[in-house]
Structures
1.
Amino acid sequence: MDETPAWMQAEARTPVDLQVDRPHGARVYDFLLGGKTNYAADREQAEKVLASVPAAAASARENRAFIHRAARHLVAEAGIRQFLDIGTGIPTSPNLHEVAQDVDPSARVVYADNDPIVLTHSRALHTTTPEGVTAYIEADATDPVSILESPALRETLDLTEPVAITLCLLLHWLPEGYDAYGMVRTLLDAVPSGSALVVTHVTKDFDERAGGIEEDFEDTGSTVRTRTKAEVGRFFEGLEFVEPGLTAPQRWRPGPAEIEAGDRDALRDQDIPIWAGVALKPAV
């Protein structure tokens, strides 16, 4: 008897159009990380990004390292055992669930992304510990209600208990004119006090050249919008920042090994055009 959940069986039967003729943010990011799950259109676009932001590959690595540190902190220090990762990207080990479940094997993670190739690889790579659960859904970030009402999410997460919502290098991809702040508020309204919001967002505050990526994606059908520190800070309204607050990702609680290696001394703030922050939802 097949014990696979009904939602997973339905997804497995759905034909996948990988849309390899146009660049996708998840695959561009994969290329910048040195991955192999990308195509000619993605690599061509990545080269344009590197021309505008020479440190784009380093930025991708720092973003990933920040996510790992944030996840470890939230599990070990904030006691959060559930994660909703929207805009997850191509799975690359160690992924969010591996980091969280390394701290607490019972941690539960739901990944959501709208790129079919992400879904395809998730089926193979998003495995879990015996104690924990990992699920994935194909969903559009611009429809947060559909994510929250997904059977996969409802079977995996208990929304009466704290959830960490991770929106890393995602919010600047949302369509022009879309209410990104409303989207984040919808997600936060669905989770209780003690939950967390984790955000990384491209900015040109550190280096005006980073604004070039907005033009780089104009002809691809995708929109990129950089935001200032104040604009990124608005996503955290009503929340309590975890120290050191909204900062460059390499400045957010670097580990002893990173400090000893001198990595943080070599990186200037202007080298990594990203704002990063973690905040908790307070009790009402």
2.
Amino acid sequence: MRPNASMRVARTGLGSVTVPGALAIVILLLALLGPLAAPHDPLAVNLTARFESSSLLHPLGTDHLGRDILSRLIAGAQTTLGAVAAALALVVALGLGVGAVSGMLGGRTDAVLMRLCDVFLTVPTFVLALFLIGAFGTGLVNVIAAIALSHWAWYARIVRGLVLELKTRDYVLAARIAGASPVAVFVEHVLAGVLPPLAALATLDVGHMALHVAGLSFLGLGVQPPTPEWGVMINEARTFFWTRPLLVVWPGLAIAVAVLAFNQLGDALRDRLDPTLVAERGL
């Protein structure tokens, strides 16, 4: 769904800035700064300050160990989005590589690689990630690997489709007739047409993968306490849900806002990069 006019807060020569887009930028900045942006040490335990209410010293209060919730949310953004960034880098690299080879070479190579993709696409991504973690073991590194291996096939399929379309263009055919190798043709003439939609897809997937990281950490399979991470915070707070519901609400709200922000940012980026939609708007 494209951002509507009421969500636009500014327009410059560089494009439109939306409320979700601004939120995504803020979340990214907090993730980059991590504990440096936190008002307190997110790991500092103070049992005399357990379950404090919101105050100037602790704007969102403290948890069952007296740790500042706001500081843990900010540090958790770095953990969650850092894991998402690493997983996305692996997904894009695998998807781009397999999709490019499949689309450029075609024939038996294409058939084998696409059947391999079909194997990964037959299983829901979260279920496949759980299976892979069961094989690899728990921990953040294994979670990143599991998420990457459960998502790359979607990207490979999309890249292959783009390559098949682009390699029939006249300028690409001319390069091939001139004797350019498949690698040179892809790098010099096809890659530029593949990267924009791939970037939009990756942005849209940030929220989806953040849910994976938080969900697996909530189940105790990813990030382990006391490391601040949104899923870990929900898991730690569930024991106190009926007496201290805000301990669950704050990290849950952080996840929801991040998913919404990056989904809307991905939609806006897709609209900017899609030639058909650009032509419709007369841009």
3.
Amino acid sequence: MINLRSLRTFVMTAEMGGLGRACTRLNLSQPAASRQIQALEAELGVALFEHIGRGLRLTSHGEDLLQRSRQLLTLSELLTEHAQALRSGQTGTLKVGATPQIIANLIAPFLPGQRRDHPGVDVQLIEGGDSQQRTRLERGEVHLTIMPLGGGGASYRLLAPVHALAVMLKTHPLARCKVIEVSELTKHPLLLLQRGYGSRAWFDAECESAQVKPPVLVESTTAHTLTELAAVGHGIAVVPSTSVVRDTLRAVPIVHRGTSVGRWVGVCWNPRRGLPSYAKLFVDELLAHAKRAFPGSALIKRAPPLPKPSEPAT
């Protein structure tokens, strides 16, 4: 019978690229971790890693078994979570993935009431770009993600539309526009989020469609950094409408041939992974909060509406 602890050590070592960082994450000594991997290799009858200098690299057998090992660990977690849900639907750990803007401007104001009403639920927030969140959801590393809809595979509840905005000083010539075409915006120095974030992907796709190349001054992981740079006149920030925009700045929706650049976002989960009852309550209550206070709704009043996806049956 495979030892799940050894399996977890194998997966963490492969993902972290070596024993040292894996041991730190697992709170294990390197000799103990090494013994677990050796025992697993003996049990499976194949070598999982090979030594390259002072490091480790997956063998072909190891690469083949890595994804299956992840699936087995996920199933083990599902079994534990299901047992917990049977005992009590009011206690547990809920892992939620979202971008920094969503965490700061949507979830943070929602959390005090959620903690008051559900003191037994520990909400863990995992920050990252949309592509990271999609991967984490598929791997079972989070229960819920708040991310743009599309790509299939996830169940979801609709939250709200998120538009790409051009944020600049009010004295900038483009600040007088109601909306800004991509082809016009890319004539100016731009401040962009790093690749992997939804609004960056939308903007890049429309630039490619318009056959223009944006002049990029700065790429950052947070919209706040970009808007602060825009506030001192260091370019135009391209950020999602969930960002906070100070009063000294002007936020203008971005369009391509008159169509808004953006996507609807939703609260998403893996349909193969059963949601505990406290996760379902979290979704219902977050949706109610978003109807009252979704960030940036005032910034997109002049934007052409985005097509609304169909709401799935629940």
